[in-house]
Design brief:
Structural class: mainly beta
Strand order of the largest sheet: 1-2-3-4-5-6-7-10
Distance between the termini: 48 Å
Largest sheet: 8 strands, antiparallel, barrel
Number of helices: 2
Strand content: over 45%
CATH class: Mainly Beta
CATH architecture: Beta Barrel
Oligomer: single chain
Number of strands: 10
Number of domains: 1
CATH topology: Porin
Helix content: 10-25%
Length: about 200
């Protein structure tokens, strides 16, 4: 019985003092952005007059193992993406992407540090129109798309920092709503946000 107690105590001590496995460096980053460039919708004569400097916002969440490689989920919402309510009524674009990320932590994975990164992946681009008024034709489309981008995360301490990036989003095929071909949905996003790790 005494031998059993010694073995249990030794096993417990081994578990307590054993090195813990490396943990993933997880983070969440809410952001705000401006979108620009890309193809204008081909809707009558409106396509040439639409202002493409539209705002958007969203959140990115991910984790990196060994401080270099990881994966992240990106959700973005862009109200009035195609133009003002006067031109199109209520309209928006939602993007949901799963990305792989590669980043090099300069200054380490803890405390104050800087991490330049590149990322890319694929997911969903959803466009929606609700013109209201005499048209009153609601239409939406879901398109498979891809994105690629890069930027930098800078941390002031173990848990808080800032993140800025430039990202290009594009549908794999042309976007057709209510029988009208809008061309291939694509845009560049410049975003900045806080990051919690």
């Amino acid at each position: 019985m005494r031998t059993f107690k010694v073995l249990v105590a030794a096993a417990a001590a081994a578990v307590i003092v054993a090195p813990t496995p490396a943990r993933a460096d997880a983070y969440v980053s809410p952001w705000a952005a401006v979108q620009f460039g890309g193809k204008l919708p081909n809707i009558g004569n409106l396509g040439d007059s639409i202002d493409r400097g539209r705002a958007g916002f969203g959140v990115t969440a991910g984790a990196m193992g060994a401080g270099v490689f990881g994966a992240e989920f990106n959700f973005g919402y862009s109200p009035s993406f195609f133009g003002t309510n006067n031109d199109f009524g209520s309209n928006s674009v939602i993007d949901v992407m799963g990305n792989l990320i590669i980043g090099i932590p300069i200054g380490g994975s803890h405390g104050g540090s800087v991490r330049p990164f590149v990322s890319g992946g694929a997911g969903l681009l959803r466009s929606q129109f609700d013109p209201g008024g005499p048209f009153n034709v609601q239409a939406s489309t879901n398109e498979a798309g891809w994105n690629i981008g890069g930027g930098v995360m800078g941390f002031f301490n173990d848990h808080f920092g800032l993140r800025g990036e430039v990202r290009y989003n594009r549908a794999f095929s042309s976007n057709t709503i209510a029988g009208t071909n809008l061309g291939t949905l694509n845009f560049t996003r410049l975003s900045i946000g806080v990051v919690f790790r």
